[in-house]
Amino acid sequence: GMRATLEGFQRFLDDDGIISSPEGWNFVDWVKDWETGIPPEAIAGQNATINWHFIYTLTLAADLEKQLGEPELAMLWQRRAETLATRVMAIFWDETRGLIAEDGNKQIFSEHTQSLALLSGLLDETTEARITQGLLNDSDLIRTTYYFSHYLFEAYGLRQEVEALQNRLKQWDSLHELGLKTTVESPEPTRSDCHAWAAHPLFHYFATFVGIRPTSPNFQTVAIRPQLGNITQVNCTLVHPLGHIKVHLKTTDKQVYADITLPETVSGVLYIGDTTYPLNPLRTVIEI
């Protein structure tokens, strides 16, 4: 199904070799100035976010094929991702601003495009650094709303800018002020007060702040890369196919304490800065 979907998008490549106006509702995010959530030029024309979404998906497909033992297909998707990224950068990159525009006229810039481009892993270090600075400091970028902020948060985590992520979580604080106990579909006026796609801060608590991520199929191995930001202590339990992963972390200016329990057949690695510590099945206690 994944392969058929990716092949299906190939028919939308235009004369410039990039995706142009796929059929259907090209919704991206409930941005106030985007009609029905569609970004500029995505109804009839070329749009950067649509292309970067496809590029990022191709890189994920390449990783999946590799994990499933299909290296030739992995190379196919990776090659297509790299080719498309080169073409898209040639059209949408704005050297003066150091960002990727939404439109070919380079008048509109968003967090959406920058986030997906960073997540693709296909940019050089200098370009990644410039885009990161834009995400942190450019006040004129169109902001992601609740659901699409997941990709922004992933980009913040990748670039180790977790304090920026924590600052953006204040948007969720306003939900309490509205008397809500569930997450909404979009900023006010929202049509749905109980929409699960805005609940991804729960994911980022485990996967970004505590940094628990699988490193092999079926979660047989795990990497834990904490990025606590202004948090000094966490105590969490993550459901795992073979039981639970329990992590207790406590940090001070001079010390890091980690007490980690994995299911009995699962091993992993704890990353503290540039140093790695092996995690054996069951309990591991580390004081640094």
Account of the 3D structure:
With 288 residues, this protein is of the alpha+beta class. Helices cover 37% and strands 18% of the residues. It has 9 helices and 10 strands. The protein has helices spanning 2-9, 48-67, 71-92, 111-120, 125-137, 149-158, 162-168, 170-177, 201-209; strands at residues 93-94, 99-100, 212-214, 221-224, 233-240, 243-251, 256-262, 267-272, 275-279, 282-287. The strands form 3 sheets. It has a 4-stranded mixed sheet with strand order 3-4-8-9. The protein has a 4-stranded antiparallel sheet with strand order 5-6-7-10, with no helix packed on it. It starts with a helix and ends with a strand. The model has no long low-confidence stretch (mean pLDDT 96).
What is this structure's SSE topology?
Layout: H1 2-9, H2 48-67, H3 71-92, E1 93-94, E2 99-100, H4 111-120, H5 125-137, H6 149-158, H7 162-168, H8 170-177, H9 201-209, E3 212-214, E4 221-224, E5 233-240, E6 243-251, E7 256-262, E8 267-272, E9 275-279, E10 282-287
Parallel strand pairs: 4-8
Antiparallel strand pairs: 1-2, 3-4, 5-6, 6-7, 7-10, 8-9
Helix pairs in contact: 2-3, 2-4, 4-5, 4-6, 6-9
What attributes characterize this protein structure?
4-stranded antiparallel β-sheet; 18% strand; 288 residues; globular; alpha+beta; 9 helices; 4-stranded mixed β-sheet
Largest sheet data? 4 strands, mixed
- Shape category: globular
% residues in beta strands: 15-25%
Unreliable runs = none
Which structural class do you get from the secondary structure elements? alpha+beta
How many DSSP H or I helices? 9
Order of helices and strands: HHHEEHHHHHHEEEEEEEE
